[in-house]
Amino acid sequence: MAGGQGRVLELAVLGSLHETPLHGYELRKRLNALLGMFRAFSYGSLYPCLRSLLARGLIAEEQPAPNAIVGGRSKIVYKLTAEGKERLQELLTQAGPSAWEDESFGVHFAFFRHTEAEVRLRILEGRRSRLEERLDAVRTALARTAERLDSYTLELQRHGLESVEREVRWLNELIATERRASAEERPERDTTSTDE
Amino acid sequence: MAGGQGRVLELAVLGSLHETPLHGYELRKRLNALLGMFRAFSYGSLYPCLRSLLARGLIAEEQPAPNAIVGGRSKIVYKLTAEGKERLQELLTQAGPSAWEDESFGVHFAFFRHTEAEVRLRILEGRRSRLEERLDAVRTALARTAERLDSYTLELQRHGLESVEREVRWLNELIATERRASAEERPERDTTSTDE
DNA sequence: GTTAGCATGTAAGGAGTTACATGATTTT
DNA sequence: AAAATCATGTAACTCCTTACATGCTAAC
User: Exposure of A49 by Cβ count < 10 A (0-12 exposed, 13-18 middle, 19+ buried)?
Assistant: First the structure.
C-alpha cells in the first residue's frame, strides 16, 4: 500500500504518457490494447499509480486549453514532467532481471524505441538465457520421468516446451537483427568476436 | 494471510499427493518440473499451504515404516486423506474461469487424467473462448492504430497474436480429440449437432 | 573440515485484483 | 427516460515472493 505501485505499471504509464498526454480511463484502454496478449491492468491499480506518480512530481495535470469553453470538468489529463522523462530513461536503462522476467519483458520491449541499442541487446539476451535455463530444467526433469507420465501431462509438457522454444527462436532473430543494425552504424568495430 | 492459500497451489499440491506421498522439498521440485514452463512456486508459499491443508484435515503426515530404524527424523512426508481426495475431486469438477485463466489452466490441465470427460471439454472450450476474446480485442485495437505504431511495438503485437493463435489451434485439436473419444465411448448419441 | 545441497519454516511486504461507490455523458 | 459507456476513485483482500533463520547430511 506504500507509494511504489510496481515498477512495471509505472514504466507502462510513463512510457505511454511520453507519446501523448492521456487521462486514466483511456490510458488503461491503450495499455490493454498494447499489452493485451501478455497482461491486463485494472483501474484499481492504475488510479493509485497515477496518484503516486503525481505526488512524486513525475506527471502533472494538463490544463485544458482555455479556448475550449467546455463545462465538462471531469477528465483529468496527465502529461509527463521533466522529472518523469528522467525517471522513464532511468527505468529504460536498467538491463536486469526486472527487465526480462515474464511480467516485465513485454512492457520493456514495447518501449524499445526509447531504449539504447546496447541495453536492448542485453535485455534480449537476458530473456533468452532465462528461457534457456527453464528449458534445461524441464527437459532434464522430463528425461527422468517421461515414461511415468500420463498423456495429458506429456501433451502439456510438449506444448510448453514448443512455446518456449519458439520464443527463443524469435529472440535469436531479434538479436541477430540488432547486431546487424549496430554493426552498420559503427562499421569500424570488429563483429566476429562478439558472440556469446 | 488467512487459511485459503490459493486454489491453484492447493490443487497442485492435492493433485501431486494423489499420485504419491511426498515431503515438501521434493513436492516443490516436482511441481516446478511439471509446471516449470508456466509458473514456479517458492517454499514461502508451499510450506504455509501444506500447514493449512494439514490443519483442514485434507492431508496427513505419513508415519515412516517402523522397520526402518532410521535416525533421520527430518523429512515430513504427507499423504492425501479421504477428505483430501473429496476436495480434489471438487476442485477438478469446477469448470469456470478459475479453471481456464492463465494462472490456473496449466494446473487444471496437468490433472486432466482425474477429471471427467465433460468437464475437460468445458474447460478447453472456456479457455479457447477466453483467448478468442483477447484476440478480437487486440486485433480491433490494432486495426485502428497500426500505422501509428513503431516497429518494436508492431513486432511485439505480431508475436503476441501468433502465440495466442497457436494456442487456439492447439486447443482446437485437443477439443476435436476429446469429442472423438467421447463419441466412441457412447456411439448411440448423435454428434452432428454438438457444434457451436 | 568445509562447502554444497537437502529440508523446514516464518515475517514482512510487494503487486495487483475485486467489489464497491459515485456521477457525467452519450446512445437508443 | 432508460441503458450503456465514460470516468474516477477507495478498501479490503489475494496470492505469492524475498529475505531471513535454522539445522542436518553428503561429498570433496
Answer: buried
Q: State residue A186 phi and psi, 5-degree precision.
A: -125, 80
CB B171 within 8 A of CB A59: no
Secondary structure percentages of chain A, helix, strand, coil, to 5? 70, 5, 30
Task: For residues A56-66, give the mean pLDDT.
Answer: 84
Average pLDDT, chain B: 89
pLDDT score recorded for residue B196: 46
Is residue B119 packed enough to be buried (19+ CB in 10 Å), middle (13-18) or exposed (0-12)? middle
Q: Read off the pLDDT of each residue in A118-135 and give the average, rounded to a whole number.
A: 95
Length of chain A counted residue by residue? 196
* Subunit contact A134:B36, Cβ cutoff 8 A: yes
Of A68 and B140, the one with more pLDDT: B140
Confidence band for B180, pLDDT divided at 50, 70 and 90 = very high
**Cβ neighbours of A155 in B, within 8 Å:** 174
pLDDT digits (tens, 9 = 90+) for B145-169: 878 889 999 999 999 999 999 999 9
Long-range pairs, A92-99, Cβ under 8 A, ≥24: A92/A11, A92/A15, A92/A116, A92/A119, A93/A119, A95/A119, A95/A122, A95/A123, A95/A126, A96/A126, A97/A126, A97/A130, A98/A7, A99/A123, A99/A126
* Helices and strands: H and E segment counts in chain B: 8, 3
d(CA B15, CA B139): 37
pTM over 0.85: yes
C-alpha cell read off for A62: 494538463
Is B75 within 8 Å of chain A by CB?
no
Q: For residues A155 and B17, what is the distance between their CA atoms, to the nearest angstrom?
A: 21
CB B60 within 8 A of CB B89: no
Of A135, A133, A109, A110, which is closest to residue A122 (Cα–Cα)?
A109
pLDDT digits (tens, 9 = 90+) for A15-34: 999 999 999 999 999 999 99
pLDDT at A2 over 50: no
Whether B153 and A106 lie within 8 Å, measured CB to CB: no
Q: Which chain A residue shows the shortest CA-CA distance from B169? A: A159
